[in-house]
Amino acid sequence: MRKMNMIVAMDTEGGIGKNGVLPWRIRKDMQYFAAVTKKVSDPAKRNAVLMGRKCWESIPESRRPLPGRLNIVLSRQLEKQNTDNLIVVNSLESALKLLSEAPFVDSIETIWNIGGAEIYDLALRENLVDEIHLTRIHKNFEADVHLKSLDFNKLKKIIDAEASSENSELFEENGLQFEIGKWKIIEHC
């Protein structure tokens, strides 16, 4: 099965959501998310963003599907769909099987797991994640959704030419301190 990268923002307690939305508003994090999930080395390809139904529904209707990427939504409730920019499937296994076959195996460069918690946890448990792009927000938002299976003892922070500017600084926006980092899984969670 194809491996994927994961991109997530979380608070000091591993919180990633509250009342169906992100509990913070950080423009730099949103810009980073868009840039990273769209970036390809081969201009003939694009990336896929893989998400659960709740994550899909948290995106304002006017902004979905996320532009410039193939949006794959995992849902047992939504009706199956297959358009140029949106595919709805009923399982992670179905999504990865689809992305491992023509035409997607040749046209999708990177699969990005964008959540939510169930999709993150499942991919981590199944050892399907290669890299994690993580925004760590230095505040507890008393979230009602948490990322449970991320173990920092099994990760190594990557500092390379591409990520060094994001890895070396602590940022502040809207009174919130946060850092953006790129991590490699060295031992599966």
TrEMBL record:
Domain of life, source organism: Eukaryota
Biological process annotations from GO: dihydrofolate metabolic process; folic acid metabolic process; one-carbon metabolic process; tetrahydrofolate biosynthetic process
Enzymatic reactions: (6S)-5,6,7,8-tetrahydrofolate + NADP(+) = 7,8-dihydrofolate + NADPH + H(+)
GO cellular component, one term: mitochondrion
Record-listed E.C. numbers: 1.5.1.3
Alphabetical keyword list: NADP, One-carbon metabolism, Oxidoreductase
PROSITE patterns for the chain: DHFR_1, DHFR_2
UniProt keyword annotation of NADP present: yes
Enzyme class, broadest EC rank: oxidoreductase
Metabolic or biological pathway, per its Swiss-Prot or TrEMBL entry: Cofactor biosynthesis; tetrahydrofolate biosynthesis; 5,6,7,8-tetrahydrofolate from 7,8-dihydrofolate: step 1/1
The DHFR domain, residue ranges: 3-185
UniProt GO MF annotations: dihydrofolate reductase activity; NADP binding
PANTHER family: DIHYDROFOLATE REDUCTASE
Protein known as: dihydrofolate reductase
Source organism (scientific name): Caenorhabditis briggsae
